[in-house]
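Re: [ENG-882] Designed sequences occasionally contain unexpected residues at chain ends

Forwarding the minimal case from QA. Structure tokens:
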């Protein structure tokens, strides 16, 4: 199908201006949704077809739909930003489209062409533009996802699939905004293993992180940190990547086949490199973090992802020890990088890499 073959059915009951204004004044994260959604169907015989923008609402699904049983599902996270001049932009959407293709390959789902993915985003933001928050650092969070909706209980790749995009006005992911968080080291649970789905953005990885995250929260932490199978090297947090900052300005981040290739992480590292920081993508030992904090050679750590943007990590807690100071303020490198990125995203600074795309 070509990208122009979208149909539009407008919601007959869009939120009133008052209701929308109240949501945009305090959006929170992931709690409110816009008036419309995009759906595109795929069948093995017919490919992608029936692309439509339609009123947001519940899906009617057969209880035997494959996704409900075997979790054949992938998703993406992106944002639309409103600039001071009112225009609406998104950030590196090609990267999300490409990652969705990689996730699809791993989950035996069909490839959605990059152009169709981008057009779906454009169409939804066009019809729901009034939902893109103004000012501050709020944005419209976009959630493209793909589900296996074939009605079949046999365990094989589904032959009917749906791609959808929904949108949700979003404030900071963490309640404290840019306030540093403490994170909890998961010793007994791993997020992903060698050859597993760790690099794919699929629901199962996030489901696997929920129990460890509950344990993290019970220990006063905002997120959980997973190690590799051997329990020696850093992987990623429950829903975002991790970066350490050394005293000499080097940024160190795990290089692993079982973590998500974060668009925000890649972009922050590029900006840091532009600013003269050395970047090391390599296996990172837990012991390096502990020893580095103790001897002063590691000065900062941060979490990063589309939802979290960049959130400083004050301390890493384990059952035996606390690495870092939970009360420590945000570090200068983290704050400067966060500002560099968000200034580009909100059009307050030049976009040297041509990352922004007007919607
Ligand atoms: C994102 O950052 O967009 C994610 O999908 C992660 C999730 C914690 C919201």
């Amino acid at each position: 199908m070509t990208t122009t073959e979208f149909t539009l059915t407008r919601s007959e009951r869009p939120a009133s201006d008052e209701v929308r204004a109240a949501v945009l004044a305090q959006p929170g994260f992931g709690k409110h949704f816009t008036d419309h959604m995009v759906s595109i169907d795929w069948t093995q015989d017919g490919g992608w077809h029936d692309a439509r923008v339609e009123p947001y609402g519940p899906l009617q699904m057969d209880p035997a739909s494959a996704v409900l049983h075997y979790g054949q599902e992938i998703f993406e996270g992106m944002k639309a930003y409103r600039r001071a001049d009112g225009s609406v932009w998104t950030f590196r959407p090609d990267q999300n489209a490409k990652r969705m293709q990689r996730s699809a390959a791993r989950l035996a789902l069909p490839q959605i062409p990059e152009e169709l993915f981008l057009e779906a985003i454009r169409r939804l933001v066009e019809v729901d533009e009034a939902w893109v928050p103004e000012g501050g650092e709020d944005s419209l969070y976009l959630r493209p996802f793909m589900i296996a909706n074939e009605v079949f209980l046999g365990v094989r790749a589904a032959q009917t699939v749906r791609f959808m995009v929904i949108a949700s006005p979003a404030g900071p992911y963490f309640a404290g905004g840019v306030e540093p968080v403490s994170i909890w080291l998961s010793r007994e649970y791993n997020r992903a293993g060698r050859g597993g789905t760790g690099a794919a953005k699929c629901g199962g990885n996030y489901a696997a992180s929920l129990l460890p995250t509950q344990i993290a929260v019970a220990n006063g932490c905002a997120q959980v940190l997973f190690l590799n199978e051997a329990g020696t090297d850093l992987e990623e947090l429950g829903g975002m990547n991790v970066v350490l900052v050394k005293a000499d300005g080097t940024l160190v981040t795990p290089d692993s086949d079982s973590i998500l290739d974060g668009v925000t992480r890649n972009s922050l590292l590029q900006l840091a490199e532009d600013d003269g920081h050395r970047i090391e993508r390599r296996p990172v030992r837990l012991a390096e973090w502990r020893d580095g904090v103790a001897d002063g050679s590691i000065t900062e750590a941060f979490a990063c992802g589309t939802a979290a943007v960049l959130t400083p990590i004050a301390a890493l807690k384990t059952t035996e020890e606390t690495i870092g100071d939970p009360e420590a303020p945000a570090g200068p490198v983290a704050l400067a990088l966060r500002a560099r990125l968000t200034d580009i995203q909100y059009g307050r600074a030049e976009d040297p890499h041509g990352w922004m795309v007007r919607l």
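QA comment: On inspection the terminal residues look reasonable. The helical segments are 17-25, 67-70, 93-106, 114-127, 203-218, 263-274, 286-295, 332-345. Proposing we downgrade this to a documentation issue.
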